[in-house]
Amino acid sequence: MLTPGQAADCPQFQTVLNKIRIPGPVGRPRTRPAAVAADKAYSSKANRAYLRRRHITAVIPEKADQQANRKKKGSAGGRPVGFDAERYKQRNTVERCFQKVKTWRGLATRYDKSPTSYDAGLHLKGSIMWLKHLTSTT
Questions:
Q1: pLDDT for residue 42 is more than 80
Q2: What distance in Å separates the CA atoms of residue 63 and residue 43, rounded to the nearest whole number?
């Protein structure tokens, strides 16, 4: 899902999750992952409710202001959100991959103004990274 560079990613959360397809050994691909790991920017009531409705485990830390508001309400504020710190640590693999992609000057500076050419650049960089990985493991 491509958005303008200045736009926040959080509003696209549900749109991106609706496009996920997880292929299995047989049958049609699954459309519901077991868990979603994201940073604090995605810790909103709407996102958490969406994940709960779809029975997806949220591995998203709670923002400090959300914690304070919940605690301020006392027992009416509800329980703290569940958070698996070990699962969250695995998220850094994906973040490092994004950082590698962003180091490519053409993508980092957004020379390609059209979404189509930018998307092609993402695919090209991904292919280069994959080929480098293949040659380093053989």
A1: yes
A2: 7
Angle, nearest 10°, between helix axes 115-137 and 91-102?
110
| Sequence-ordered list of residues with C-beta below 8 angstroms from that of 82, at least 6 positions apart, any chain | 57, 58
pLDDT band at 111 (very low <50, low <70, confident <90, very high): low
For residue 59, the SS3 value is strand
Helix (H, G, I), strand (E, B) or coil at 57: strand
3 state DSSP class of 30: strand
| pLDDT for residue 100 | 85
Classify each residue of 62-92 as buried b or exposed e, where b means 16 or more C-beta atoms within 10 Å of its C-beta.
Answer: beeebeeebeeeeeeeeeeeeeeeeebeeee
What are the two backbone dihedrals, phi and then psi, of residue 57, each rounded to the nearest 5 degrees? -70, 130
Q: Would you mind telling me the total number of residues written for the chain in this entry?
A: 138
pLDDT digits (tens, 9 = 90+) for 12-32: 889 889 998 988 899 999 888
Domain boundary assignment for the chain: 7-88, 90-138
Is the Cβ–Cβ distance between 101 and 122 less than 8 Å? yes
